[in-house]
Specification:
CATH topology of the largest domain in chain A: Rossmann fold
Radius of gyration of chain A: 21 Å
CATH class of the largest domain in chain A: Alpha Beta
Low-confidence stretches of chain B: none
CATH architecture of chain B: 3-Layer(aba) Sandwich
Mean pLDDT of chain A: 89
Largest interface: A-B, 38 and 32 residues
Number of domains of chain B: 1
CATH topology of chain B: Rossmann fold
Oligomer: heterodimer
CATH architecture of the largest domain in chain A: 3-Layer(aba) Sandwich
Structural class of chain B: alpha/beta
Number of domains of chain A: 2
Radius of gyration of chain B: 19 Å
CATH superfamily of chain B: P-loop containing nucleotide triphosphate hydrolases
Shape of chain A: globular
Largest sheet of chain B: 6 strands, mixed
Structural class of chain A: alpha/beta
């Protein structure tokens, strides 16, 4: 019975997603393996450095990759029993913004500078054929913590602060009460003093509406504060997945271990900051081997024979050959 | 202790008009700012966006003109220097901006990027340029092999080290660091912070350090000034402010920090 319950509460299941971009000499795969599962109401973080494939993989979930610049090579995105990668553009339009919403990284640039807040929020409702009343919009503005909703309703984005625009972006995304909200670095363009408020807001909305959230971040603090579960990305691959406690208290992957060491070093104000030697690979440097090989202190010759599999170990997953052996022993 | 930078009662206001009929409104971007940065000292500026941190950086560098007040560098008043006189002093104060792909000219090699400030300010003889570039590369922990590369071929951390190399090329004594690591990946932030501390000791530098990350501020700064709405609301010893903040706003700011060791 437990299994059945689990099946029913699963909202979205992405497996083995691969995405390529075109360049002068052909195409290059930037996401080489992205898997994510979300239960209803769950908050999952995707953590990785710039260029690790966080944004590309999450925006591919609702196929926001422009056909001119790139393509989804393979994978499955099962949402409500349907594969979104096979859905028609018409079907997708009904899902985007309605059932799955996306908060872009630079919120001030994502809002239309020529339209008042009230007008652009109203348009979202109109597009999805929902009743567009001023009361409803004001209500939603209140929900995201906008105090003078009436004044803001008639304002243009440039008249508002970064924090207010970020809240409006969130209001716009929850207008249709989506099942899933994908938030790409929702706090990176706003002030540190507002960070916690925005994260609290996302958590409150998630709880209240039983909404699932995928949050993309490069900040361990943000991930630890908000998420139930965490996926670590490196070199276009998910390299580790686990609950917040598992990742922070007992990381498996050498990269996760090193990254936590860097973060702790700063938090504990050590005299000499810890850092990982070398730099993350860019897509052009991707090879058929473990992406962390060149920087890894535990590397072995076997690490270069192909990309390690993303293996399940009990209730978590890791992509490292050190754990392949452990599993076979057990 | 020698004073490197002294700012006295400095203000910058802008006049704004909502429409042609409405009354003029004065917006204070910086109001009666007074502080001093001593030799080999780091003063941190913290505060929410729009609180005036970058306005102060721009005023100190004379990139914008103050409305009131006085700026002294090495005891010399530079507040009203004309542009051509100011240019002689530009080599003494340098800035490291938040790293973006647009800070370095993508069409210049590392070699050219490092030679540019050396030539503009006549730091070394033409015949010594190559040697000097090698010395700078070494100082910022980059290998000679990076010298002929373009910014696009290097990582964010490597490019930020080139930007630091350009700043120290002019033998500047004061460097304004405006969010120097906040755009860098977590795994390499520490490397850049270590470098900034090493250079501070080796070259006897002073920093005016702007960051929204209190963990970075705590690591880097001797003293801190907390800004809100264009004013300094609290200033003092870094440890004292972070461990025992007096002003309500500072308390709020410190509470809001997401620390991975707590919560």
């Amino acid at each position: 019975m437990l299994g059945v319950d689990k099946m029913e509460s699963k909202l979205i299941e992405v497996s083995d997603l691969k995405v390529s971009f075109y360049y002068e000499k052909g195409s290059i795969q930037v996401v080489r393996g992205f898997d994510i599962e979300l239960n209803k109401g769950e908050i999952v973080g995707i953590l990785g450095e710039s260029g690790s494939g966080k944004t590309v993989s999450s925006s591919s979930i609702i196929r926001l990759i422009d056909e001119v610049v790139g393509r989804i090579d393979s994978g499955e995105v099962i949402f409500e029993g349907k594969d979104l990668l096979k859905a028609s553009e018409e079907e997708l339009k009904k899902i985007r913004g309605n059932k799955i919403s996306y908060i872009f990284q630079n919120s001030s640039a994502a809002l239309n500078p020529y339209k008042t807040i009230g007008k652009q929020l109203g348009e979202v409702l109109k597009t999805h054929s929902l009743t567009n009343t001023k009361e409803y919009v004001l209500d939603k503005l209140g929900e995201v913590g906008i105090d003078e909703a009436e004044r803001i309703y008639n304002s243009y984005p440039f008249q508002l602060s970064g924090g207010q625009n970020q809240r409006i972006m969130i209001a716009q995304c929850i207008l249709c009460n989506p099942e899933l909200l994908i938030a790409d670095e929702p706090t990176s363009s706003i002030d540190a003093s507002l960070q916690k408020t925005v994260l609290d807001l996302l958590r409150d909305i998630s709880k209240k509406n039983d909404m699932s959230v995928i949050i993309i971040t490069h900040d361990f603090g943000v991930a630890k504060y908000l998420c139930d579960r965490l996926m670590i990305m490196y070199g276009g691959l998910v390299v580790e997945e686990g609950t917040i406690e598992q990742i922070f208290n007992a990381p498996f992957h050498p990269y996760t271990k090193e990254l936590i060491k860097c973060s702790n070093s700063l938090a504990q104000d050590e005299d000499i900051m810890y850092f990982i030697e070398g730099t993350p690979p860019t897509a052009h440097q991707f090879k058929d081997e473990c992406p962390f090989y060149s920087r890894c202190k535990l590397r072995e010759p076997a690490c270069t024979s192909g990309i390690p599999e993303f293996r399940r170990i009990n209730d978590r997953k890791v992509r490292c050959i050190l754990f392949e052996n452990e599993v076979s022993k057990a | 202790m020698n004073s490197i930078l002294k700012v006295d009662n400095l203000s910058k206001h802008y006049i704004s008009k909502k429409s042609i009929f409405s009354k003029k409104q004065v917006v204070d971007a910086a109001k009666n700012i007074t502080f001093e940065v001593g030799e080999n000292q780091t003063l941190g500026l913290i505060g929410e966006s729009g609180s005036g941190k970058s306005t102060i950086a721009n005023l100190v560098l004379r990139l914008i003109e103050p409305s009131n007040g006085r700026i002294e560098i090495f005891g010399k008043d530079i507040t009203n220097l004309k542009e051509d006189e100011m240019r002689k002093h530009r080599k003494d104060i340098q800035i490291i901006f938040q790293y973006t792909n647009s800070v370095l000219d993508p069409q210049m090699t590392v070699d050219e990027l490092l030679k540019e400030p050396l030539k503009i300010h006549n730091i070394v003889k033409e015949s010594e340029l190559d040697e000097e570039v090698e010395r700078l590369l070494q100082m910022v922990n980059l290998s000679s092999s990076e010298r002929w590369k373009f910014p696009g071929q290097l990582s964010g951390g490597q490019n930020q080290r080139i930007i630091i190399g350009r700043a120290i090329a002019t033998r500047a004594k004061l460097i304004v660091c405006d969010e120097p690591v906040s755009a860098l990946d977590a795994s390499v932030q520490g490397q850049v912070l270590n470098l900034l501390i090493k250079l501070k000791e080796e070259l006897n530098l002073s920093y005016l350090f702007i960051s929204h990350d209190l963990k970075v501020i705590r690591h880097m700064c001797d003293r801190i000034a907390v800004m809100k709405n264009g004013e300094i609301v609290e200033m003092g010893d870094a440890d004292a402010i972070l461990n025992n903040p007096q002003h309500e706003y500072t308390k709020k700011l410190i509470e809001s920090i997401l620390d991975i060791n707590t919560n």
